[in-house]
Amino acid sequence: CHGAHCSPRVTVKYRINSLCHGVCCGWSRCCGMGDFRPRTVWLGHPEKREQRYPRNVINNQKYNFFTFLPGVLFNQFKYFFNLYFLLLACSQFVNELRLGALYTYWVPLGFVLIITIVREAVEEVRCFLRDKEVNSQIYSKLSTRGTVKVKSSSIQVGDLIIVEKNQRVPADMIFLRTSEKNGSCFLRTDQLDGETDWKLRLPVSCTQRLPTAADLLQIRSYVYAEEPNIDIHNFIGTFTREDGDPPVNESLSIENTLWASTVIASGTVVGVVVYTGKELRSVMNTSNPRHKIGLFDLEVNCLTKILFGALVVVSLVMVALQHFAGRWYLQIFRFLLLFSNIVPISLRVNLDMGKMVFSWMIRKDSKIPGTVVRASTIPEQLGRISYLLTDKTGTLTQNEMVFRRLHLGTVAYGMDSMDEVQSHVFSAYTQPSHDLPTSRAPAATKVRKTISSRVHEAVKAIALVHNVTPVYESNGVTDQAEAEQHYEDTCRVYQASSPDEVSLVQWTESVGLTLVGRDQSSMQLRTPSGQILNFTILQIFPFTYESKRMGIIVRDETTGEITFYMKGADVVMAGIVQYNDWLEEECGNMAREGLRVLVVAKKSLTEEQYQDFEARYVQAKLSVHDRSLKVATVIESLEMEMELLCLTGVEDQLQADVRPTLEILRNAGIKVWMLTGDKLETATCTAKNAHLVTRNQDIHVFRPVTTRGEAHLELNAFRRKHDCALVISGDSLEVCLKFYEYEFMELACQCPAVVCCRCAPTQKAQIVRLLQERTGKLTCAVGEEPHNHQTAEGEGKQASLAADFSVSQFKHLGRLLMVHGRNSYKRSAALSQFVIHRSLCISTMQAVFSSVFYFASVPLYQGFLIIGYSTIYTMFPVFSLVLDKDVKSEVAMLYPELYKDLLKGRPLSFKTFLIWVLISIYQGSIIMYGALLLFESEFVHIVAISFTSLILTELLMVALTVQTWHWLMIVAELLSLACYIASLVFLHEFIDVYFIATLSFVWKVTAITLVSCLPLYILKYLRRRFSPPSYSKLTS
Fold first, then answer.
1. Residues forming the annotated binding site for Mg(2+)?
2. What pLDDT digit, counting tens, does each position of 681-737 carry?
3. Cis peptide upstream of residue 246 (ω within 30 degrees of 0)
4. Which sequence ranges are marked TM in the entry (predicted)?
C-alpha cells in the first residue's frame, strides 16, 4: 500500500504536464520529427548513429521571426473586445458608414496594438538572449585530435564531453569517469526538480578503471539506452565493452546519469551524450507557459459585455425614436459607430500596463528581496486569496536538522545525556573486552557492558549506514592533500544528498566515532583513541521515496565480518525487524515531540549467504524488463528478521518568522492548509509549534477509515465539532474523497486550519483542484516542489519555474499578499472603473447631443478631439491611479483584517460598476445640457465649452478618486492640463481660439464643471463622515 502513496515529491508537475506533452509530441510527429526510440550509442563515435537525433538547442520562445506578427495579432483579436474594434475600424472604408476622418478609429486601435506588440517583442528578445546564452556555452569534447572546444548547441549524441565543477551539464549523459578520489560525484538538481538536496552519482566502473580519459576512445564500447521519456527519477540501460575478454556487461540506472540542467557540485566529470535537444528530460518536463487569465480579467470582460449590450440598446432606441424612417438599418450601424465609445478601447492597454507596473513594484520591493514574478498577468490575484496550501519541509521549516534523541528501547538519551553515550563509546574502544573470559567478570559489569555494547553497536551503525562523503578543503594553514592524509578535523566538510544524513554523521562525530574517509568501495571511521577502522562497502541500496529506507552491506577489514545495516521510516521497518513490543509506541512518542524518526537495524551475514545474494542481485540488475521489480525482490530476501538497534530523532527547525506570518494570514481571513508527507504526530506537533492551530483551538484527529461506512460515521462525528482544526491522513482523505467528496470538502472548508499528513504529491494537486472547483475561491499553493495549479507560489528556486511568483522565505508571503496583492487588486479595480467612466461620459454627451438635434447621427467631436480625449489629455492622470494607496504598507501589515474586505470582491462588483455608470450619465448630461443652455451663437462654441468642461471634469474626478497623493500624480494632472491648453492653438478648426480668451467662456466652463463635480465631492465628504470604510479609520 505504501508504495502507491509515497511517489516522489515532484511527480505532480510531471504527471500533469505529460498530458500536454502527449499533444506536443503527437503534433511534432506529424511534422516529421520521428518518434522516440531506444538507442545504441557508440562512445566517441557520433557518426555511427542509426537514427536522426534532434540538435542540442534549447528554445523557450513562443514565436519565431515569421510567426511573431501573425501570432501576436491572432492572440489579440481572439478577444471579443479587440475584434469588435477591428470591425469598427474596417467599417470606415464603407462610404455610407463613414463618420469623419478615417484616423478617428484607426489610431486608437493601432496605439493599443503597438503597445502589445512592443511588450511581446521585448519578452521574446529576452527569451531569445537567455536561450542564446545557454546554447553558446563552451564545453570540452574528447576527440581523436585531443580535447576540442564545442558549443553546447553543436553537441551530438555519442560525444564524450568533459564538464568542470560548477558547470551546467549540457545534455543528458551517462557518467563515465570522475577526477574525485572517492570515485563519485555530487549533482545539484534544483534547476530540474526543485529539490535542494544534492544527489550522489556513480560512474560506470569499467570506464572509471581506465588509466586516462583518452583511453575512452581506444576501447570498443557502447551504451544501450531506453527511449526518451518524462521520468527524471528512473533510467534503464546497459553498458557493453566488446573488446574486453570476456566482454564486459554493466547495468545502468539513474545513479549513472547526469541529466541536462543539473550542475556538477564536485570534481570534473566525463560523460557520453545519450539524449539531446527536444529529447532531454528537462525539456520534456517543461510545459509551454500557460497564459494565465485571472479572475479579475474575467470580471472586467463581463462588464464590457454588459456595456456592449447597452450600446446596442441605445442605438436601437435612437433609431426607434426616428420611427425607423428611410434606410434605418444603415442608421443603426451609424449609431453603433457613434456610440462605440461606450466600450472603452483603452481598457485592456491600461490594465496590462498596470499589471506591468505592479509586477515591477513587487520585484523592486526591498523588504522582500529575491522575489520573482513570472506570471505578470495576474498580480491582482494576490489580493483575493482565500485558501493557502503550504508544504511543511523547507517551506515552514528550514530543512536543517539537529540531532535530538537516541532511543535503545530500554533507555533513551536526550541532548543533556549525550556525554553518557560518549563514555560508552569510549569504553567500548579502550577496554580490551574481548580478551577477558566473561565468567570472571561480576554480574553488575556484565549488565553495564551490555548497555555499553548496545550503545556502541547503535552508534557504529549510524556512522556506517548513509551516503555521506567527507570532503577536505584547504583552510590556509594546511593544504588539501595534507588535510586528506591526516584527516584534519578543521578542514572537513560533509557532503550528502539530504540534511538528515549529515546531522546523523555529525552527531556520531560528537560522541567520538568520526567518519573520516569514503570512496566508492570503502569507508574509514576514527575511534576516540585515534585508531582508524576500515570497512569495505560491498553493496549499497539507496533511499527512494517508494522504499523509504536505505541499506548498506559492509565488511569489517579487521575481523572480516559482513554486516547488512539498514535505516528507514518506522512504517516500513516495523515489518522488517524482529518482533518487539516498544517500537511503535516509542515512535509515536517521539513524533509527538515533532521529531523525525528513523529506525536503525542490522543483520550479520556469513560469506556464503553474501555470495549467494550477490549472484542473484547482479543477475537481476542486468535484466532490461521489469528490472526494478526483480531487484526489489532480491533485496527483500535479505530484509527479514533484522535486529533492531535503535531509533534516532532529528528535529527540523521552523523558518524565521513563520509564526507571525501565519498569524497575519489567519487574521486576514485566509484559511491555511498544511499538506505534508510526515507522520500524523509530527505534523500535529509542527502545526501547534508554528501556531497554525491557536492555543485554545481543539484539534480533531480524523480516525483512519477504510470503508464507506466508517467514513460516514467519522464525518458525522466531525460535523458536531465547532471551530476546530482538522488533522487527517492521506489514506483516510482518499477514502473520504472517493465516497463523500462534496460533504467532506464542505466541512473542511469551514475549518480554520487543516493538516493533511502522509500526503502524496498527487493528492496535493488533487486537493488544490478540488478547493478551486468547490468554493470557486482563489487558492494559493506554496511549496518547494511544483504543483501545477498554483496561483502564487513560494520557495524552492526552480520548482518555481512552474510557479507564478517565487519568494525566498515564507515570511515574505505576508507582505506579498497584504501589501502588494491588496494594492494591485484595489488599483486595478479603480483603474478599470475609471476608464469605463471616462468613455461613458463622452458617450452620454453624444447621446444628449443627438437627441437634441432630432436624432441625427452626426458626431459631436471630430477627428483629433476624440483621439486626444482618450490619449494625451487624460491618459497620464488616469493611469497614475496605479500609484494610489489607501493605507501605508506598515498599516496594511499591522491590520491584516483590511485584507478580509477584499475577499468579498467589493472593489469591483456590479454595485460599484452601477454607481460609476450613474455618475458618468449625470456628468455627461450636465456638461452637455449646460453647454447647450449657455451657448451663444455658434455651434463651435458648444464644442469648445463642453469639451473643456469635460477635460476639467475628468481631471477633477481623478483627484477625487485618489486617496494618497504621489508627486507623479500631480505632475500627470498638470502635464495633461498643459497639453490641452497648448493644443488649443492647433485645433482652431474645431475650437474658436478668440472665443476661449474671453471672460464669458471662462465663467461658463467654471460653472458647468462645478455643477458636474461639486455634488460628488459633497457626497464623498458625507460618506467619509457618516459611514467611513475601514481603512479610513486607520489613516486619520
1. 391, 393
2. 788 888 888 888 887 788 898 988 889 999 999 999 999 888 889 999 888 998 998
3. yes
4. 65-87, 99-118, 298-322, 328-351, 835-855, 861-883, 913-933, 939-960, 967-987, 993-1019
pLDDT category of residue 471 using cuts at 50, 70 and 90: confident
- Which H, E and C letters describe 124-142, residue by residue? HHHHHHHHHHHHCCEEEEE
Question: What is the C-alpha to C-alpha distance for residues 239 and 581, in angstroms, rounded to an integer?
Answer: 47
Question: Quick one: which of 835, 922, 921 has its CA closest to 871?
Answer: 835
Residue 611 has pLDDT above 90, yes or no: yes
Per-residue pLDDT of 982-995, as tens digits, reads 887 777 666 766 77
The answer to whether 272 touches 41, Cβ cutoff 8 Å, is yes
Q: Catalytic residues, which ones? A: 391
Cell of 633: 525482490
Residue 164 confidence (pLDDT): 92
Residue 791 has pLDDT above 50, yes or no: no
Locate the DSSP E strands across 375-430.
Answer: 385-391, 397-407, 412-413
Indicate the annotated binding residues: 391-393, 501, 543, 567, 596, 676-678, 758, 764
Is residue 581 helix, strand or coil?
A: coil
Q: Which of 784, 759, 769, 597 is nearest to 6 (CA)?
A: 759
3-state secondary structure of 624: coil
Condensed to tens digits (0 to 9), the pLDDT of residues 515-564 reads 998 887 899 999 998 899 999 999 999 887 678 889 999 999 999 999 99
Cα-Cα-Cα-Cα dihedral of 58, 59, 65, 70, to 10°? 170
pLDDT in tens, 958-1016: 888 888 888 899 999 999 989 888 887 777 666 766 777 778 888 888 989 999 999 98
CA 521-526-529 angle, to 5 degrees, is 155
Q: For residue 45, with 0-12 CB atoms within 10 Å meaning exposed, 13-18 middle and 19 or more buried, which class applies?
A: middle
Which amino acid makes up residue 760? A
Rounded to an integer, what distance in angstroms lies between the CA atom of residue 977 and that of residue 629? Answer: 78
Orientation angle between helical segments 295-321 and 328-338, nearest 10 degrees: 140
Between the alpha carbon of residue 240 and those of residues 43, 219, 252, 276, 521, the distances in Å are 10, 11, 10, 21, 22
User: Are the CB atoms for 684 and 701 separated by under 8 Å?
Assistant: yes
* pLDDT confidence band for 446 (50 / 70 / 90): low
The alpha carbon dihedral of 674, 677, 680, 682 has a sign of: negative
Listed residue (922, 901, 900, 895) closest to 1019, CA to CA = 922
φ and ψ at 649, to 5 degrees?
-125, 125
Residues 6 or more apart in contact with residue 972 via CB below 8 angstroms: 876, 877, 879, 880
Tell me the pLDDT band of 288, cut-offs 50, 70 and 90.
low
- The H or E element containing residue 223 is strand 221-225
